[in-house]
Backbone:
């Protein structure tokens, strides 16, 4: 049995679920999301919410799919009601970000600026050295934030680069510090 999979997904006020075979569509105040579930996973709508089940609860693969499917649908419900956001911080002298429309221009110490176009459904906001990526699809928000971070990952000596605001960069001692210790 999957402890996560057997939990009932509550639908808040203003959120509707439509189930068509293996396709689940969740519609809420912020938008609409659709997810195709695995063929071994079934979903039913009851009076107290959505219930996810599998054909064979003794199979290890199906138990994993059970929990995964429940969390995917739950993330869709949270996305259409509250939304998701990730914050990135730019550290480094001369490193900056400018937003013009849906295009994010990053100056990260290279010989050329990097231009990143936000995909549909993603909003990007720039305030000084903070970049906020927000949207209703959790996977897409995380992927866009990871793609932006990948342009200049933080380095361990001075911490220059793009990092998540809650990320801790473990610093290393430089060469001068290593020589004086010996």
Residues:
């Amino acid at each position: 049995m999957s402890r996560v999979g057997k939990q009932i997904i509550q639908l808040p006020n203003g959120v509707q679920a439509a189930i068509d075979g293996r396709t689940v569509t969740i519609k809420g105040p912020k938008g609409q999301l659709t997810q195709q579930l695995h063929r071994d996973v079934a979903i039913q709508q009851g009076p107290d919410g959505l219930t996810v089940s599998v054909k064979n609860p003794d199979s290890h693969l199906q138990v994993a799919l059970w929990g995964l499917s429940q969390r995917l649908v739950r993330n869709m419900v949270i996305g259409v009601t509250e939304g998701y956001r990730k914050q990135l911080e730019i550290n480094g002298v001369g490193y900056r970000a400018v937003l013009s429309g849906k295009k994010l221009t990053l100056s990260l110490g290279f010989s050329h600026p990097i231009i990143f176009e936000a995909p549909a459904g993603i909003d990007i906001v720039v305030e000084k050295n903070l970049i906020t990526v927000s949207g209703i699809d959790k996977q897409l928000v995380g992927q866009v934030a990871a793609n932006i971070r990948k342009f200049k990952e933080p380095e361990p000596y001075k911490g220059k680069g793009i990092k998540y605001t809650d990320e801790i960069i473990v610093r290393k001692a430089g060469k001068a510090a290593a020589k004086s210790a010996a």
